[in-house]
Amino acid sequence: WVDDPLARWAFGQDLLDHVVAGGDPAGWVAARPAAGGLPPGRLGRTLLTGFVDEVVALHEAAGRPDGASVPVGVDVTLDGAVHGVTRVRLVGAVRHTGGAVVDVRYATDHASQAVAAAVALLAAASAGVAVPGADGSAVPDVAHVVRRAPSGARDDTPVVRALRLAGDDADARAAGARAALGALVDLALRV
What we know:
By secondary structure, the chain is α+β, with helices and mostly antiparallel strands. The protein contains 5 helices and 8 strands; from the N terminus they run αααββββαββββα. It has helices spanning 5-20, 25-35, 41-61, 111-127, 170-190; strands spanning 72-82, 85-94, 96-97, 100-108, 131-133, 136-138, 142-148, 159-164. Strand 5 and strand 6 form a beta hairpin. It is elongated.
């Protein structure tokens, strides 16, 4: 079990999902041995403690998103010629906290995950979706990508990437986001 990265990821992501939904790590830890899948005794308890420490660090680094930060719906229609297609509609949801798009996962940092967070940010800005923040609701101009430290890192500090939209004002950022999103859709349609 210790050498099964997929099993470790599943446990860590399950705990992170529990905490982000507003759950207490202690309750998850208490229920986990009965669910099975852990080594018995002290080894199992030691592994659970390690998961809790990592997940709490990820949750704090992400700004403590919780069940109250319900993902907001995004619905964007891109008009114009996008690789021969005149209209493309993107529908989905983005998670947020503190006025920013946030993507926190129990995984190590990979470029594809940063791209996914960037697409969520571009979609939210293109659609003009306002998310609650410290200064009221506004269209986000930053995304935070929070991941586990890579294997072999000197410490277990989570990796935090901040992706920020360029532009002096909300209209400029929205226009730039729409153009970038159109370019990404065009690229995806060419593949």
